[in-house]
Amino acid sequence: MKKKVLLVAFIILIVLFTILKHVFVCDMPIVANITLGVDDALMVNIARYILMGEWIGDYSDVRLSKGLTFPIMLAFSSSINLDYITMMTSLYTIACFLFMLVISKRIKNKIVLVFLYVITLFNPVMYSYQVMQRIYRNAIIPSLSILIMTGYLYLFFTRNDKNVIRKLLVSILTGIVLAAFWYTREDSIWMLPFIGFMSLSMLISCIYTNRKSIKNFLESFIVLIVVLLIPFGILFGYRHILASKNEEKFGRYTIYNDEAYKKAMKSLKKVKKYDYYENIDFTVEKLKRVSEVSCLKVIYQSLEGLIYGYAQFDSSPETEEVANGWFPWALKGALNQYGYYGSAEITDEYFDKLHTEIEIALAEGKLEYEDVKPDILHKLKQLAKSIILTFKCVLNYEDIYFMDAPSKDYEEADKHEYMIFYDLTHNKFMVQDKETGEDVNLTNNEEGYNQKVLEQGKNVKTLVTIYKYLNIPTFIVASIAYVIYSFVTLIQLFKKKLVNLEMWVVISSVLGAMLSIMMGIAYETAFNAYVITAMYLSVAYPLMLLFSMLMISVSILKIIEWIKNRKENKKELNKNEVLENA
């Protein structure tokens, strides 16, 4: 009876907190960044073309530059009249719930499970302007990442189960999510260490468990290999579908159409630069010299202007140069202005020609090779500095802020562009009239709506503050506990005791995934462009929470179990003494 009451209470709490979360975000406004043609506006425009049955629109400098999963999801949610905020929140809620459900296979304590679910569910990063309020692809990365991890953890927990059909079904669903994740951003490779670690753990477990029976080993091994290969089969299948659609539309069987572009960039990077700036390989002075001996001359004037424009948004605008991460957009934008993105064929021809002319100029001595050997020590210092900044950003919940007031000034000329964003996402449209200075909701004049949003902004700021002050001590405690837990697990492993090994694998995999994305961001910042922001680090926040909560929860449960065993042993010892005395 007591177990049933606890189960009912557990279900009620989960439902209540889930409803509370969705009520909390119901009035959250989106931010229509109509000027970001390579980011937010690109996603919205591609989604519109998909809804019109025109695939992703006409070929251009940005059309095949980014993953297509997000605009496909955006088009789908719009087609079923589901507003953007509800879609994003629901996806994240499902991910958190399924993770908790899978972890419940090993952590049975209902209080711990509710705590884990609620802390992860209300993560402030999911209210941040850079993640949720923008109509941009980073919004789905936390949800998809947690779902992938959940799928592999389920397969790990059920590795010895005989229900093959269920494992195949989970493998298929995990593959679908993995495919969607892989073609959302171009830096998805950070997930591979997690997948590799979990797959290796399952293979080692299969060998160890079935070491005494070749027949059992072969049966389990074949099933495991199929289960592990299915996600990658679906991933390649999804790639084939996208590439085929692009071939049909643009004449190129590709996702990003960047083969010729990469060759040209590689050649361009070989050219010596005379002006030195950190993380800037393509200086204006260097480009001018290249333009004198190559087809870059045709677009140089526009390229220089775009570099100056992008430099204003870079980390060092005073240099009037752009970091490596920004330069491709300036180059492609200049080419687009001169019609070199009229078709995939024209684009490839230009980049092939640029590559050939630079190589010839280098061979003939018209351009000098970059002969500066990399300073390994300096680069390591750069990387170390970026790693510290990355950890500081996540630990302190930096760069997480909520747009609780209109972010755009209303002008009649902009109304159409704004309306595209809000119509597509089925969200309310609130801007500011420049003449009157009043807040105007163009799609819904509900009285008090703006006040609700302002109040919600205060609530979000309070939530961020709470998480900020709790995150550092909990992560430190969890890290210390992890070192102790790892040491104990290793000692037990030598004694052939595997009681703690399974949870160690789970916690290590979560920690490894968190470190993978953070190290990737730190590396990119150190050597290409500054990307230590909530937008790029969005998944690191829930992963850090999951690691801390799992490690602390397991430690507390182990301590409780140890105390309980001590009491039982003491009671048994006293009982034996009484019997001996009798």
In brief, what are we looking at here?
66% of the residues lie in helices and 2% in strands. With 582 residues, it is mainly alpha-helical. 37% of the residues are buried.
SSE order and pairing:
Elements: H1 2-25, H2 40-51, H3 69-79, H4 84-103, H5 110-121, H6 129-133, H7 141-157, H8 164-182, H9 192-209, H10 214-250, H11 259-270, H12 284-291, H13 300-311, H14 327-337, H15 344-363, H16 376-395, E1 409-410, H17 415-425, E2 430-433, E3 439-441, H18 449-494, H19 501-527, H20 540-581
Parallel strand pairs: 1-2
Antiparallel strand pairs: 2-3
Helix pairs in contact: 1-4, 1-5, 2-3, 4-5, 4-7, 5-20, 7-8, 7-9, 8-10, 9-10, 9-19, 11-15, 13-14, 16-19, 18-20, 19-20
How many alpha or pi helices? 20
The total of beta strands comes to 3
SS-based class: mainly alpha
- Beta-strand residue percentage: under 5%
Runs in which pLDDT lies below 50 for 5 or more consecutive residues are none
Helix and strand string, N-terminal first?
A: HHHHHHHHHHHHHHHHEHEEHHH
Radius of gyration: 27 Å
Helical content band? 55-70%
> What is the spatial order of strands in the main beta sheet?
1-2-3
- Largest sheet at a glance? 3 strands, mixed
Q: What's the shape?
A: globular
Mean pLDDT: 88
The N- and C-terminal alpha carbons lie at a distance of 39 Å
Pick out its properties.
single chain, 582 residues, mainly alpha, 3-stranded mixed beta sheet, 20 helices, 3 strands, globular
